TrEMBL record:
The protein's name: Phosphodiester glycosidase domain-containing protein
Organism: Terrimicrobium sacchariphilum
Domain of life, per lineage: Bacteria
Signal peptide (UniProt feature, chain positions): 1-19
Coiled coil: none
Length: 247
């Protein structure tokens, strides 16, 4: 009985595991943030139609609504003026259409894909799959290339590639947990795309999507975020002040 009571006390006093982790793999340091789909919001423009662009501006907007930024990350490749390169859905509204066109650059390295959240949870699928599924998404962002689909690495990636760059992405575990990941900024060695895909697989994600490269940033429970890079759409988790994101 004493052993059982002691075990309960240890569980009660043990620190909660943070949603953010710092993980070294293959000579590269990755930062991850795990969350539930219901916690995630996607932002692009304010009520006047002006894009938020910077994390600092979105933080000010959320504070005015009585919300606190627990997590923030840029949400995908965009064109001049911050226009998403492909699909963007916010609060169930299609703000920019699905893009199935050919082209050059990461976004168009087929298969590219869509991260979306609907009533069933979070998903990463190819853009072509999304076009056939036509889900009723609460939010969605299209980017490319797709890192993983059903556990398989994108066929164009090479394990021996020397294209070591700063990157961020998002993956989904079979239990529905969403895993955001970014290479730690300023380190000596970043990851190639094959290594980035393998990292998501090591975190239990059979499906994952590349979001963007050099300009990418992630903040967890930040103080005042200084003005910095300009982005297109932005992911944020921002509970009401006094509340905490559920785990």
């Amino acid at each position: 009985m004493r052993t059982f009571v002691l075990a309960l006390l240890l569980l009660a006093t043990a620190p909660l595991v943070s949603a953010q982790q710092r993980i070294e793999r293959g000579g590269t340091v990755f930062l991850t943030y795990e969350t539930k789909p219901a916690e995630i919001d996607l932002f692009w423009k304010d009520a006047s139609g002006e894009r938020f662009g910077q994390f600092s501006k979105l933080q000010e907007h959320l504070r005015a609504e009585g919300r606190r930024v627990a997590f923030i990350m840029n949400a995908g490749i965009f064109e001049e003026g911050g226009v998403p390169s492909g699909l963007c859905i916010i609060d169930g509204k299609i703000l920019h259409p699905l893009n199935l066109s050919p082209g050059a650059g990461n976004f168009f390295l087929k298969p590219n894909g869509v991260f979306y959240i609907d009533a069933r949870g979070a998903h990463v699928v190819t853009s072509e799959e999304y076009a056939k599924l036509k889900p009723h998404a609460r939010l969605a962002i299209q980017s490319g290339p797709l890192l993983l689909r059903n556990g398989k690495v994108h066929p164009a990636f090479r394990a021996d590639s020397k294209n070591y760059l700063h990157r961020n992405g998002v993956g989904v575990r079979p239990d529905g947990t969403v895993v955001f990941a970014i290479t730690e900024f300023g380190q000596p060695r970043y990851a190639n795309l094959h290594e980035f895909a393998e990292f998501f697989r090591s975190q239990g994600c059979p499906d994952a999507l590349f979001l963007d490269g050099d300009i990418s940033r992630m903040f967890v429970n930040p103080g005042d975020i200084p003005p910095s890079n300009y982005f297109g759409a932005i992911f944020a988790i921002a509970p009401k002040v006094g509340d905490a994101p559920s785990r």
